[in-house]
Write a structure and sequence with these properties.
globular; disordered N terminus; 6 strands; 128 residues; disordered C terminus; single chain; alpha+beta; two-stranded antiparallel sheet; 3 helices
């Protein structure tokens, strides 16, 4: 990935980091399932001494009223880095189009059961 810090083609909020910096809040998306989501950058330390930090995204799913989180989708690990700052930087460089695609991929990975009905979100905190 090329390094154009938080600015793709002169649009300062075209990347996840640029959006966070410009608007001081996470971007919101409508997922492929029609539900509203926001996004959170997550960095965790692992026991891997060569790249002890991993980065991924978590997409909280909001109630239709917007008054609470009722589930979430997350990506697999998107990067492995030597430092926390590098891992966060990698996630911040993702374009908003890439972030939306990752959300929709996560929704698709949740899959559907045999009758075509969506499987319940195991992290759901109640109904909308």
């Amino acid at each position: 990935m090329s390094h154009e810090p938080d600015d793709i083609h002169g649009v300062p909020d075209a990347t996840l980091g640029g959006y966070l910096d410009t608007h001081d809040r996470p971007p919101a998306f409508e997922g492929a399932d029609g539900h509203p989501y926001t996004v959170s950058l997550e960095v965790e330390q692992t026991p891997d001494l060569r790249a002890p930090y991993v980065g991924y995204l978590v997409f909280p799913r909001w109630a239709a009223t917007g008054l609470g989180v009722i589930g979430h989708v997350q990506t697999p690990v998107l990067c492995r880095e030597k430092g926390r700052t590098a891992a966060e930087g990698h996630l911040r460089e993702l374009s908003l189009d890439q972030v939306k695609s990752l959300l929709d991929d996560g929704i698709e990975r949740r899959g559907e059961d045999a009758d075509g009905e969506p499987r319940p979100d195991p992290y759901s905190f109640g109904s909308e």
